[in-house]
Amino acid sequence: MTTLVSNERDKRGGDTRIRDTRIDVLRALALLTIFVDHVPGTVFENWTYKNFGFSDAAEAFVLISGISVALAYGTKFKPGSRLLATLKMWRRAGVLYISHIVVTMAVIALFCAAAVFAHRPEMLTMINIEPLMKNTPQVLLGIVTLGHQLGYNNILPVYAALLLAAPAFVLFVSYRPVPALIVSGLLWLVAGIWQIAPLNYPEPGLWFLNPLSWQFLFNIGLAAMLHVKRGGRIPVNPWLLGAASIYVVAAAIWVHSPLWGQITWFNLPVVIGGFDKTFLSLPRLLHILSVSYLIVALPAVSNLFRVRPDNPLAILGKRSLPVFIAGTLLAMAAQVLKLINPGGPAYDTLLIAAGIAMQFALALYLEWLAGLGPSRAKSVREEAPPRPFGAHPVPARAGGY
Fold it and tell me: How many domains does the chain have?
């Protein structure tokens, strides 16, 4: 069986590391799907991943995020380097937080501009902007404390919360993977049954994506990748393959049948018998795990996502944060344009194609820019005048995310 390790090699500073482009490609597909889904009303919305099962691109994104944390920090989280790895994860969480605040304010400005210049005041009642207009001081405080989140702008807060807890996750999963997943699963179950989640502020309600629930999926990805990195394998079991295949096919049929739409079945708690996204109900969780298992366990499927490192999809997935930010802003702009002029299939095609093209352009530009780094440093060293004997060089600034 092929594992989640490819033969593509990435040399950085003399350290040869293996980079699995399949993870980048799957992340890229999740990002592009999120973009399309965040422009409701287009013809393309009916053909994305969410239309073929219980889960959607958000589940794929969080699962891949857990895998990515294991790849980035799993082997570094050892005695003597845990503090540095922890600080790096927390710094990344801070970057995500700042990115979320900036994107939120830009989206508010975008809808306000449409309301003013397009004479569409109803824009200020959409995607949870209306409370800001009515209760500005409290809602601004809510935005800063993540208690008030705009519609279609909910993923970065939960990801930032998961990264804040990631050092504890990595430590626990590294030493006791089975007990760690049992505790994580119990937390998911308790949060779902008793509806425990971070509170909104100042509006009533809970976070749209509950980190106490979504941490279970994140930790499953984390534990699976740590297992593989230590030489383990994801077992290929015919019974599991059959069960996963049946479940995926049944889910695709279910969402297009009269069965779809019921809050829960057999009077079970929603987290067990429903399809709630906030608490990551069991059918959604099983669906993304079934799809993932089929991708990992079947080489014919897995290898479809294996590409060269210079493939545009691999580059887009590699530059996930700036692409996600750009995709969110582009999706919100497309929403505004779609509300002003509903258009038709040709108009939808223009909006979606332009947005996707701009995301690819940004990713390729960032990759090209990163490639200039070593060349620039080399040319500076070659052109710099010789230092006086005994002078000490100024240490270079460490690279950021």
Answer: 1
